TrEMBL record:
<protein>
    <submittedName>
        <fullName>AGE family epimerase/isomerase</fullName>
        <ecNumber>5.-.-.-</ecNumber>
    </submittedName>
</protein>
<dbReference type="InterPro" id="IPR010819">
    <property type="entry name" value="AGE/CE"/>
</dbReference>
<comment type="similarity">
    <text>Belongs to the N-acylglucosamine 2-epimerase family.</text>
</comment>
<dbReference type="Pfam" id="PF07221">
    <property type="entry name" value="GlcNAc_2-epim"/>
</dbReference>
<keyword id="KW-0413">Isomerase</keyword>
<dbReference type="GO" id="GO:0016853">
    <property type="term" value="F:isomerase activity"/>
</dbReference>
<dbReference type="GO" id="GO:0005975">
    <property type="term" value="P:carbohydrate metabolic process"/>
</dbReference>
<dbReference type="InterPro" id="IPR012341">
    <property type="entry name" value="6hp_glycosidase-like_sf"/>
</dbReference>
<dbReference type="InterPro" id="IPR008928">
    <property type="entry name" value="6-hairpin_glycosidase_sf"/>
</dbReference>
Length: 405
C-alpha cells in the first residue's frame, strides 16, 4: 500500500494551506460584541449579531491558530474572551445567553456552555489574559447548574433565572460536553472531568447506542426515556432533527477514541468496549448514510429504518467523518480507514470547498448544489478547521494542549 496520507508531507502541506485559507475568510466575522455569521461571500450582513455559539467556536479556533503560530490571531482570541466575559454573559444571574441581552431568547443551554468552556480552555493554553477568569466562571456554572451527578450527564437548559428546567435531555449537548470535559481535564489537571466524560459516554454510547446497532438516540425526556418521534414535524431542525444524525455518530466515535487515549494517558482504567464502540458507530454511519439516496455524500438524517429523511449534505458531517476516519486509522492502522479518509477528503475537495468565494459551502442539496435549507451562509469555522488539524495529532491530549506540546 502507498504511504498513508497521515504521513504524507504533500498531504500535510495541503492541510496547512486549506487551514490558512479558512482562517483568512473567518477573520472578517468580528463584531464589537463578539463574532457574527458570514454570508456566502464572507461578508457580515447589515443586521449581523454576535452569537455565543459562533463567538465561542471562533475564539477556540483562533486560539488553536495562535498556538500554531499564525500571526494576527492572538488579538482575535482576546476579543472573543472579552465578548464572552462581557455582552454575552448574564451579569445578574450568571451563565451565558445565546445572543446579547435584548436580542431574543435569554435561556441558558448546556450546548452553549460547553462551547464557552472549550473556548476558555483553549484561550488559557494560548496564554490569553482573562481566559483563566472565564474558565473558572464557566466551570463553576457547569458544575452548579448543568452537571447532574445522579444522572451522570448534563441537564439540557434552564430559564434565565435558573428556576425552570427544560423537561428534555439531549445527546448533542452531552456530546459537546464530552469534548469540553476532555479539554478541561488537560487544562486544569483535574481527572474528575475525564470521569464525567466517561459517564456520559457510558450512558449514551456504551449502553444506549450499543443496544440499538450503534445508532445514536438523540432525544430523551427528563427521565432519559427515548423520544423517537421528537421533531417528526420539523425534521430539518439544525440542532434537534428528527431521527438519527450520522454526523453525530462520527463525532461520537472520535470522542470515544479521545476518551480512551485520555484515560490511558492519565493512567486511569479505560473500558475495553471503547474501541469496538468507535468502530461500530463509524461503520454504521458509513453503511447507512453514504450514498443513502444513490448520490455521493452523507445525508443529514435517517429515520428509524435507516432511510434518508433530510437528504442535504452538510459540511460539518463530512468534516467529522474525515476526522474520525483519521482517528480510527491512527488507532488501528487498518486500510479500511485510510480508504474512507481519502474518500471523504476527495468529496470535500470536489463539492464543499468554494474556490471562488472562500471557505466551504455549508450545505449542498441532493443534487450536490449549494443550498440553504438548514444553514445559510458560511458562519462556521470550527468543524472544518478541526478536521484539518486533527489528522496530524495524537488522540490525546486534546487539541489545544496537543498543539502546544
Amino acid at each position: 500500500m502507498a504511504i498513508s496520507w497521515l504521513d504524507s508531507p504533500t498531504h500535510h502541506a495541503w492541510l496547512d494551506a486549506e487551514a490558512l485559507r479558512l482562517l483568512a475568510f473567518a477573520r472578517t466575522s468580528r463584531l464589537p460584541q463578539g463574532f457574527g455569521n458570514l454570508d456566502d461571500e464572507g461578508r457580515l450582513p447589515r443586521c449581523a449579531l454576535a452569537e455565543t455559539m459562533n463567538t465561542a467556536r471562533m475564539t477556540h479556533s483562533f486560539a488553536l491558530a495562535h498556538i500554531q503560530g499564525v500571526p494576527g490571531c492572538r488579538e482575535l482570541v482576546g476579543h472573543g474572551v472579552e465578548a464572552l466575559q462581557g455582552p454575552l454573559r448574564d451579569k445578574e444571574h450568571d451563565g451565558w445567553y445565546a445572543q446579547p441581552e435584548g436580542h431574543g431568547d435569554t435561556g441558558k443551554a448546556a450546548y452553549l456552555h460547553a462551547f464557552v468552556a472549550l473556548a476558555a480552555s483553549s484561550a488559557v493554553v494560548a496564554g490569553i489574559s482573562q481566559a483563566s477568569a472565564l474558565l473558572e466562571a464557566v466551570t463553576q456554572v457547569i458544575e452548579q447548574r448543568f452537571w447532574c451527578e445522579e444522572e451522570g450527564a448534563l441537564r439540557e437548559s434552564f430559564s434565565r433565572d435558573w428556576l425552570h428546567a427544560e423537561a428534555y435531555r439531549g445527546a448533542n449537548s452531552n456530546m459537546h460536553g464530552v469534548e469540553a470535559f476532555l479539554s478541561l481535564a488537560d487544562v486544569t489537571g483535574d481527572t474528575q472531568w475525564l470521569l464525567r466524560a466517561q459517564r456520559i459516554v457510558e450512558r449514551l454510547i456504551l449502553t444506549r447506542a450499543a443496544a440499538d446497532g450503534m445508532r445514536v438516540t438523540e432525544h430523551f425526556d427528563a427521565q432519559w426515556q427515548a423520544l423517537p418521534d421528537y421533531n417528526r414535524e420539523n425534521p430539518v431542525d439544525g440542532f434537534r432533527p428528527y431521527g438519527t444524525t450520522p454526523g453525530h455518530a462520527f463525532e461520537w466515535a472520535r470522542l470515544v477514541l479521545h476518551l480512551e487515549a485520555a484515560l490511558q494517558r492519565a493512567q486511569l482504567p479505560a473500558p475495553e468496549s471503547l474501541l469496538p464502540a468507535a468502530r461500530g458507530l463509524f461503520d454504521s454511519a458509513c453503511r447507512h448514510a453514504w450514498q443513502a439516496d444513490g448520490a455521493p455524500g452523507l445525508v443529514y438524517t435517517l429515520d428509524w429504518h435507516n432511510r434518508p429523511v433530510v437528504r442535504e449534505r452538510l459540511h460539518w458531517v463530512h468534516a467529522e467523518a474525515c476526522a474520525t476516519a483519521a482517528a480510527l486509522l491512527r488507532r488501528t492502522g487498518e486500510a479500511q480507514y485510510e480508504h474512507w479518509y481519502r474518500c471523504f477528503w476527495d468529496f470535500i475537495a470536489s463539492h464543499f470547498i468554494d474556490c471562488a468565494h472562500g471557505s466551504w459551502h455549508h450545505e449542498l442539496d441532493p443534487a450536490l448544489l449549494p443550498s440553504a435549507r438548514i444553514w445559510g451562509g458560511k458562519p462556521d469555522l470550527y468543524h472544518a478547521y478541526q478536521a484539518l488539524l486533527l489528522p496530524r495529532l495524537p488522540l490525546a491530549p486534546s487539541l489545544a494542549t496537543a498543539l502546544a506540546l
